[in-house]
Amino acid sequence: MTTVTVEYDETNPLVDKILDLLRSIGAQIKTRSDKSELDYAIEELRLGKTIKCDSFEDYLSKVSE
Q: Do the beta carbons of residue 9 and residue 18 sit within 8 Å?
């Protein structure tokens, strides 16, 4: 299964129709409001999608890559 991330104006009624169409053909639509930012951070931690640093200088070198 492929995941696609889309940013959109949720006040646009056409977007709602497009999302409804996608749902009608079996697409699983998840919105950011389904999970909090903390939930996403905990999931990344659980999956090991973290960076370990030995010092602040190490951190700076890794985030600037």
A: no
- For the stretch 14-48, pLDDT in tens is 998 999 999 999 998 877 666 678 888 898 999 99
Task: Give pTM, 2 decimals.
Answer: 0.44
In order, the DSSP letters of 2-47 are --------TT-HHHHHHHHHHHHTT-----GGGS-HHHHHHHHHHT
- What Å distances lie between residue 21 and 11, 28, 38, 51, 53, CA to CA? 17, 11, 30, 39, 45
